[in-house]
Design a protein that fits this description.
With 375 residues, the chain is an alpha/beta fold. It contains 16 helices and 15 strands. It has helices at 29-42, 44-47, 67-80, 100-106, 123-129, 135-147, 166-179, 196-203, 211-227, 246-252, 279-287, 300-311, 320-326, 329-344, 359-362, 365-372, and strands at 3-8, 52-59, 83-93, 113-119, 153-159, 183-188, 231-234, 237-239, 257-260, 265-267, 271-275, 293-297, 318-319, 348-351, 354-357. The strands form 3 sheets. It has a 9-stranded mixed beta sheet with strand order 7-8-6-5-4-3-2-1-9, with helices on both faces. A 3-stranded antiparallel beta sheet has the order 10-11-12, with no helix packed on it. The relative contact order is 0.12.
């Protein structure tokens, strides 16, 4: 069991682009945390005797919880599970929350990695995205975290924002690089149905950037971060040497994990399960001792497809001998036939016993991955 994911769905305000499950019902935070801790204890057998290597509090905005609530969660995890001697313990934070006072208190808890959603250093874009910080506060938050003694900091960025130019995106990258975070996640903006951003696009409030503009910004992202010393270890993720996200890597490397909280997902190698995406019903279920979730048993074909989808996103790619051990000859033959075509097109390469995307293939990764999927 590589990791525990804890979903904290509370947000002071919802971002216009976000489709993750969240709520602004702050008055039930205490009940939610107690329910969450009960689930952690209730599901300890899911981890079996495995050592937990990573803990990740995501959201939502975990930094909106009180220190007492965060401590309750950490204490429950450490009292219930077998935690490794050197775990990676991450908390997602809004830059607004990272004051010196908050960080001084946070330092008393096990967190050793901070991930903050900066998204942009353009105040106009931040306002459009519904973020509650500005560029100056984002920069100050990184400084505050460094001053507090945190030496593993990750920031999120979004590219291809509405109306953005290549010059504006270069400014965002320059600002990010100047802060020298250990890790940068950069995501292409997607217009998720049901979000305010999607509705604004449908109304014609702005136009979506062209495919060429998207590619141009992605190319600049890769080039500038490589020049700045970041390893492009997954399509959307870049890290200084040794600072790759251990928790996220477990998702891409087919390692089991447990997810607790409303809408959280878990995976044990043969099945996936997910909690109800309704905070009130989740709390009621936990308070009555019932785990309200759905489960899906995965066929070998589904597990193969999941592996292709995740591993081919990484720089390390698909280890061929491992694939032969894990999946039947029929699926491996399908993979090899499809891979040969993509290698001939220059989209895939086979090196050191693994299949991985070429620089050309990265830009059409979805199409390449579809070729290897078994239908």
């Amino acid at each position: 069991m590589a990791g525990i994911y804890i979903h904290i769905p509370f947000c002071k305000q919802r971002c216009t682009y976000c489709a993750f499950y969240s709520t602004t019902l702050y008055n039930i935070r205490e009940r939610y945390v107690k329910a969450l801790c009960q689930e952690l204890v209730m599901r300890k057998e899911y981890a079996g005797s495995e050592t937990v290597e990573t803990i990740y509090l995501g959201g939502g905005t975990p930094s909106t919880l009180s220190m007492e609530q965060l401590k309750m969660i950490c204490d429950t995890i450490y009292a219930t599970y077998h935690i490794s001697q050197a775990p990676e313990v991450t908390i997602e934070c809004n830059p607004d929350d990272l004051t010196p006072e908050f960080l001084a208190q946070l330092k008393e808890l096990p967190f050793n990695r901070i991930s903050m959603g900066v998204q942009s250093f353009n105040d106009t874009q931040l306002k459009r995205l519904g973020r509650r910080h500005n560029a100056d506060k984002a920069c100050q938050a990184v400084k505050n975290a460094r001053d507090a003694g945190y030496d593993n900091i990750s920031i999120d960025l979004i590219f291809a924002l509405p109306g953005s130019t290549i010059t504006e995106w270069e400014h965002d990258l320059d600002c990010a690089i100047a802060l020298q975070p250990n890790h940068i996640s950069a995501y292409n903006l997607t217009y998720e149905e049901g979000t305010p951003m999607h509705r604004a696009l449908e109304r014609g409030d702005f136009a979506e950037l062209s495919e060429e503009e998207n590619i141009e910004q992605f190319q600049m992202l890769i080039a500038k971060l490589k020049e700045a010393g970041y390893r492009h270890y997954e399509i959307s993720n870049f890290a200084k040497p040794g600072c790759e996200s251990r928790h996220n890597s477990s998702y891409w490397n087919d390692t089991p994990y447990i997810g607790c909280g409303a809408a959280a997902h878990s995976y044990n190698g043969t099945s996936r399960q997910w909690n109800i995406a309704d905070i009130q019903e989740y709390i009621k279920g936990m308070e009555s001792g019932e785990h309200n979730f759905e489960i899906e048993q995965l066929t070998e074909e589904e597990r193969y497809n999941d592996t292709i989808l995740t591993r081919l996103r990484t720089a390390d790619g698909l280890p061929l001998e491992w694939m032969k051990e894990k999946f039947c000859d029929r699926l491996n033959r399908h993979m090899q036939r499809a891979a040969e075509k993509e290698i001939a097109l220059g989209n895939l390469k086979e090196e050191n016993g693994s299949l991985s995307l070429t620089e050309k293939g990265i830009f059409i990764s979805d199409a390449v991955i579809r070729e290897l999927i078994y239908i």
